[in-house]
Amino acid sequence: MPHTHRPSRPQAASCSRPLLSRLLSPRLTRGLACGAVWLGTLLGALPAWAETRLAFEIDLRAELATGRFDPARDRLGLRGAAAPLSWDRPLLAAPSSTPGIYTLTVTLPDDATGGQPLAYKFRIERGPGQGPDEGWEPGRNHALLLQPGAQTVQRAFGPPAALVPAQRTGRIERLGVVPSAHVQARDVQVWLPPGYERDTDARYPVLYLHDGQNVFDAQAAGAEWQVDEAAQAGVQSGRLQPFIVVAVASTETRARDYTPSAMLVPAERLGTSAPERQGGGVAAYARFLIEELKPAIDARFRTRPGRANTAVGGSSFGGLASMWLALHRADTFGAALVVSPSVWWDDLFILRDASATTVAPRERPRLWVDMGGEEGPQAVRLARDLAHTLAQRGWTRDQLQFTEDPRGSHDEASWARRVPAMLDFLYRRP
After folding, report:
1. Which domain holds residue 233?
2. What is the spatial distance between Cα 350 and Cα 357, in angstroms, rounded to a whole number?
3. Of 128, 156, 184, the domain-final residue
4. In angstroms, rounded to a whole number, what is the distance separating the alpha carbons of residues 136 and 287?
5. Which residue spans within 51-185 are E strands per DSSP?
6. Helix axes 345-356, 377-392, angle to 10 degrees
7. What one GO molecular function would you report for this record (predicted)?
8. pTM of the prediction?
9. Domain end: 106, 128, 156, which one?
10. Are residues 21 and 83 in the same domain?
């Protein structure tokens, strides 16, 4: 399946300059105005980069022969994970002088994916009325490692994508499928810090991450968060205190597990004849994490089990789930990474929830909230509104870090670029 798409949602109220500006570290803020927050990213000044010029030649003759592609009606679109590619809108290929061969040239910075393969897919675009899952090349996303200069990709539409080599750093234990009385069973992996085997008296804080299949390697999504590489480097350098990472995989029930309320999803988004009500299962997922998984992790590994040493994080719907857990299960989680959150869900449910939920000052989790500039102006506005709402509810500058990544898209490679800063927020030594 391609990347999850986000439907448009209503625009929320504008930001309040004085309140939001107090949340932002001076070293991050270059300027602030209502409706526009200008941030130097936590990644530091962006370096100069070379360009990659990708030339695609896609053979559609089999699709033409079977009638799956009608040149009088259809267009061939490229979608992907790094600007100028997007999962939400296509770059259109053009027919070449050879019948059935379509071409497209795209220029990207060679560091557009942070050194990871570029995840992409072609789609037959049919315009209004086409279901969101229709027209895509079958199977997993294709992946391409960018190199400076010119690259050419010549292939047919629809062949199986090659597996991305798994790059895993440090000691990672696979716990296998963990059963649950509350949600569907799922895979869990645990990254252990350098020195875990040697110092048998030491105990460690724990970070639980959603969508765990994308945390340590790129085989599931074509790109990954690179948490193992960032954590290994940070701990070995002495910049970060040692910690444990628990990567909790998602399943086909992801939309239900990670959303705090149910909403009626339009038929055109589902590609069905009628709308369906979906979502609202995050409380059950929370019971799995807190009542089943966390006790098992604390029993098996040398953890510090208290809330001050337990954090949770995720992106998109996973960011939404992390925000809900921070608001409603602050007794368990003392910090949360709310990454590119789907604030739009259910007519801005999480904004209403944050406005209505009281968390005692001593129990307020430390919160990282972020958004990528390439995720769209509405997504950025809503992320700012969330930070503003949290400030109104009592989160202080020491408790809340809000940042924007100007080059960030809604994809694993963009989140991977921000992971070192997230880990600094959670675990940097004084």
Report:
1. 17-40+165-427
2. 10
3. 156
4. 36
5. 51-59, 75-80, 91-92, 94-95, 101-109, 117-125, 142-145, 149-156, 171-178
6. 20
7. hydrolase activity
8. 0.81
9. 156
10. no
